[in-house]
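haha ok so turns out i had the wrong file open the whole time. this is the CORRECT one, sorry everyone. sequence first:
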Amino acid sequence: MILVFFYILLEIYEVQWQSAPTLMDMLSRMYTYYNKSIFLFLIMHPTLYFAIWLMILSDYNIYALVLFLLKAADIFTKLYFIKQIFIDKKISDELKIALSTQLDKYMPYIGLLIYPPLVYMALN
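then structure:
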């Protein structure tokens, strides 16, 4: 349970530094770190490293693998959007509207409902 609690703390940290009223604002915040260094951007996602460590610790348990794949897909998606929007400056009008939509204040916390059970199941 200590590891689950530690993971929750790391996830809350990530939510706090990424939180913004819209997805575009979230991506903009992330881009500030990405623009400084891609490595800094990746370091700002400690749950990815936790997931890698958990895979090794659990001898590549299926739940740990799912956690890692979800976290990796999340980060790669963010990187793709950052590249499209801020570097290539190629964004469709539809995507611009979707990214500008206000987020519910609890939306960024959905990971706290999905990921900790995976950590718990990987450890058992």
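The first helix runs from residue 2 to 18.
again sry for the mixup
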